[in-house]
């Protein structure tokens, strides 16, 4: 137990001080098997001197940047290769069958860097997907070579889009449960990316439903609001979905706190990260030819 706490403290010190050459940490690592108490004392001294509180490396909800927008990837949180970026057109569900998980089975591995409560939150997202769709999930076995590798690194939340046939990344930076990457809808959002969905507001029909206010977007981030024309991805004839967990929030990539996306329907709310919308569920089921719907 003491050793686990010390190892956890080591991660905090490294995370907060960003000092890969921390000598006390190095020494403690060497002494972990011998004298844990000495290391704990040294670590506490280091934390106090540095003004670091002995608390888990969690982010506050007061952060103004949504962690889905923090990674600086395509539309904030989608890891795409060069070919995929060129081909990223259409509405929001990939048509290409080779991007679907074989046998509707998503294989995943959850990093041991997550504690039990965060692991449970990820598993709850998986359970929600299994309850509402015919897609199934299982944990990776040692012999698996293609799976979603769910990591807890800094840098926000981001995910490779669609099945890659190899180890593919999903990152969920550790936030308090219910915040940042650990909002239930964000976990589902990232899993929908992994299953082959892009963002809702990239839809070719989006201008009939939202106004993008370019004057309010951080200069250089306009590419995140690109609209895609084509049939490479589809909305499966379900139409635009303000309620999707894949829709940006109104203030996404805002430079001035003003909205960058304004729904044309004055009653519409966008950017929810509570759960799957009815159309999210239908799209997943249609994409995977689930017997209940197709
Ligand atoms: Zn996303």
UniProtKB/TrEMBL annotation:
Its cofactor is Zn(2+). Keywords: Hydrolase, Metal-binding, Metalloprotease, Protease, Zinc. One of its GO terms (molecular function) is zinc ion binding. Its EC number is 3.4.24.-. It comes from the Eukaryota. PROSITE patterns: ASTACIN (PS51864). Binds 1 zinc ion per subunit. Residues 92-291 form the Peptidase M12A domain. InterPro entries: Astacin-like_dom (IPR034035), MetalloPept_cat_dom_sf (IPR024079), Peptidase_M12A (IPR001506), Peptidase_Metallo (IPR006026). SUPFAM superfamilies: Metalloproteases ('zincins'), catalytic domain. Zn(2+) binds at residues 189, 193, 199. The active site is at 190. GO terms for biological process: proteolysis. It is an enzyme of class 3 (hydrolase). SMART domains: ZnMc (SM00235). PANTHER family: DISCOIDIN, CUB, EGF, LAMININ , AND ZINC METALLOPROTEASE DOMAIN CONTAINING, MEPRIN A SUBUNIT BETA. This is Metalloendopeptidase. It comes from Drosophila lebanonensis. The lineage of its organism: Eukaryota, Metazoa, Ecdysozoa, Arthropoda, Hexapoda.
């Amino acid at each position: 137990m003491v050793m686990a706490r010390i190892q956890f403290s080591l991660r905090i010190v490294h995370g907060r001080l960003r000092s890969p050459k921390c000598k006390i940490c190095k020494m403690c690592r060497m002494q972990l098997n011998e004298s844990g108490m000495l290391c704990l004392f040294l670590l506490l001294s280091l934390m106090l001197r540095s003004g670091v509180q002995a608390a888990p490396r969690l982010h506050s909800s007061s952060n103004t940047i949504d962690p889905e927008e923090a990674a600086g990837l395509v539309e904030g949180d989608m890891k795409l290769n060069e070919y995929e970026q060129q081909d990223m057109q259409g509405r929001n569900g990939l048509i290409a069958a080779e991007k679907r998980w074989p046998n509707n089975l998503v294989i995943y591995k959850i990093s041991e860097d997550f504690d039990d409560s965060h692991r449970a939150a990820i598993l709850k997202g998986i359970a929600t997907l299994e309850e509402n769709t015919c897609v199934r999930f299982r944990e990776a076995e040692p012999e698996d070579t293609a799976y979603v590798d769910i990591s807890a690194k800094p840098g926000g939340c981001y995910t490779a889009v669609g099945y890659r046939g190899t180890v593919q990344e999903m990152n969920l930076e550790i936030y308090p449960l219910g915040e940042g990457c650990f909002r239930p809808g964000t976990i589902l959002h990232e899993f929908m990316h992994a299953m082959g969905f892009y963002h809702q507001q990239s839809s070719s029909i989006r201008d009939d439903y939202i106004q993008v206010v370019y004057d309010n977007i951080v200069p250089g981030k306009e590419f995140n609001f690109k609209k895609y024309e084509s049939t490479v991805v589809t909305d499966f004839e379900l139409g635009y979905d303000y309620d999707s967990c894949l829709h940006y929030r109104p203030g996404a990539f805002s430079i001035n706190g003003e909205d960058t996306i304004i729904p044309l329907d004055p009653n519409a709310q966008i950017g929810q990260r509570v759960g799957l919308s009815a159309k999210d569920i239908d799209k997943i089921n249609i994409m995977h030819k689930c017997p209940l719907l197709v």
